[in-house]
């Protein structure tokens, strides 16, 4: 088994990915500054009895980062400030975490002779491009500092492959949801907010008319995609959409969750938020063709899983 590193490994996606790698038997280096990551997301690592190194520092601490990557085969770069509203409120913090942070990881990986870096990008890079579904080769202008940070990160990955031979892969996530996603954050994603409010008997809050659409994908699908991106010979130098290819409105999402819970809550509607795109759905034909990747968990199955998780674990 290989030595793997996960930046942002105490976060929602990072901790699920790290736990999956640990269960495969890999030696792990987990890096997180715990600004948004949670100690409880790494409870499995504390009890593992295996080689899991938890490094408590920011990826922009370059000296510590390079030492941590010594002997690492593959880096999964999940560390970021993953919020459109927060990036609009504080663009400098987003730039530092997402652009400078990605550059720091790429430089450290190059200098440590890491084989491959898999970088978390986002469907937000499609910006104001109105065409659906979203195809990797066609993007619009970014609508937020967060979206711009992902565009720049992708360009840095392309350059590091071309200039230094560092294998890089970018995965454009489409609305990931699942266990460990924080519903209490001011910038929480829609599904954990909906799930916890419905479980408490409160109406979910929708910003806008609810007819905006997204491509929701369960966390285990994203974990599987990262592993394929880290191991497949066709992956380096490419960007891939990671979604289910299913367009779902927020109103439909509430309806699905009401059906699972056997409730009938009607949403409360608030004014739309700045920087949000109206419609988004992934074209997943490229990742299917090049990497033989197909998401295994459907939206309905994923919603049932995440509702059960919040029912058991609450909102803490």
CATH topology heading of the domain at 3-177 and 219-243 and 283-296: Rossmann fold
Low-confidence region ranges = none
| Separation, N- and C-terminal Cα atoms | 35 Å
Going by CATH, the homologous superfamily of the domain at 3-177 and 219-243 and 283-296 would be NAD(P)-binding Rossmann-like Domain
How many distinct helices? 11
The count of strands amounts to: 13
Kindly provide the radius of gyration, computed on alpha-carbon positions and rounded to a whole number of angstroms. Answer: 19 Å
H-E order: EHEHEHEHHEHEEHEEEHEEHEHH
Largest sheet: 7 strands, parallel
CATH architecture of the domain at 3-177 and 219-243 and 283-296: 3-Layer(aba) Sandwich
Q: What class, by secondary structure content?
A: alpha/beta
Assign the CATH class of the domain at 3-177 and 219-243 and 283-296. Alpha Beta
Tell me what portion of residues adopts beta-strand conformation: 15-25%
Please give the share of residues in helix. Answer: 40-55%
> What is the overall shape?
globular
**Strand adjacency order, main sheet:** 3-2-1-4-5-6-11
Give the rounded overall mean pLDDT.
Answer: 94
Describe the fold and architecture.
With 316 residues, the chain is an alpha/beta fold. The protein has a domain at 3-177 and 219-243 and 283-296: NAD(P)-binding Rossmann-like Domain (Rossmann fold), CATH 3.40.50.720. 40% of the residues lie in helices and 16% in strands. The chain has 11 helices and 13 strands. The chain has helices spanning 12-23, 43-46, 62-68, 84-89, 91-111, 145-164, 190-199, 219-231, 250-261, 285-291, 299-313, and strands at 3-7, 27-31, 52-55, 74-77, 116-122, 167-173, 176-177, 205-207, 213-214, 217-218, 239-242, 248-249, 268-270. Strands 3-2-1-4-5-6-11 form a 7-stranded parallel sheet, with helices on both faces. A two-stranded parallel ribbon has the order 7-10. Helix 9 (250-261) packs across helix 11 (299-313). The longest helix is centred in the N-terminal third of the chain and has 21 residues, at 91-111. The model has no long low-confidence stretch (mean pLDDT 94).
């Amino acid at each position: 088994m290989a030595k793997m590193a996960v930046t942002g490994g105490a976060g929602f996606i990072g901790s699920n990915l790290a736990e999956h790698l640990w269960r495969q038997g890999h030696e792990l280096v987990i890096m997180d500054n715990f600004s948004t990551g949670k100690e409880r997301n790494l409870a499995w690592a504390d009890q593992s009895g295996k080689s899991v190194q938890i490094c408590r520092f920011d990826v922009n601490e370059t000296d510590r980062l390079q030492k941590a990557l010594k002997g690492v085969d593959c880096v999964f770069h999940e560390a970021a400030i993953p919020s459109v509203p927060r990036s609009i409120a504080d663009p400098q913090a987003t730039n530092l975490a997402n652009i400078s942070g990605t550059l720091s990881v790429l430089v450290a990986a190059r200098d440590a002779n890491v084989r491959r870096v898999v970088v978390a990008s986002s469907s937000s890079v499609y910006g104001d491009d109105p065409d659906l579904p979203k195809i990797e080769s066609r993007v619009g202008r970014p609508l937020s500092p967060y979206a711009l940070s992902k565009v720049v990160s992708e360009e840095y990955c392309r350059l590091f492959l071309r200039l230094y031979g560092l294998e890089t892969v970018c995965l454009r996530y489409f609305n990931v949801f699942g266990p460990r996603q924080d519903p209490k954050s001011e910038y929480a994603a829609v599904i954990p907010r909906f799930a916890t409010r419905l479980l408490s008997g409160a109406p979910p809050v929708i910003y806008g008319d609810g007819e905006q659409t997204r491509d929701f994908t369960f966390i285990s699908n994203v974990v599987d995609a990262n592993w394929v991106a880290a191991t497949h010979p066709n992956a380096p130098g490419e960007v891939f959409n990671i979604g289910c290819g299913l367009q779902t409105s927020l109103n439909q999402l509430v309806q699905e969750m009401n059906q699972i819970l056997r409730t009938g809550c009607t949403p409360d509607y608030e004014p739309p938020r700045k920087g949000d795109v109206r419609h988004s759905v992934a074209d997943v034909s490229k990742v299917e063709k090049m990497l033989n990747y197909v998401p295994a968990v459907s939206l309905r199955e994923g919603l049932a899983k995440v509702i059960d998780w919040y029912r058991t674990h609450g909102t803490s």
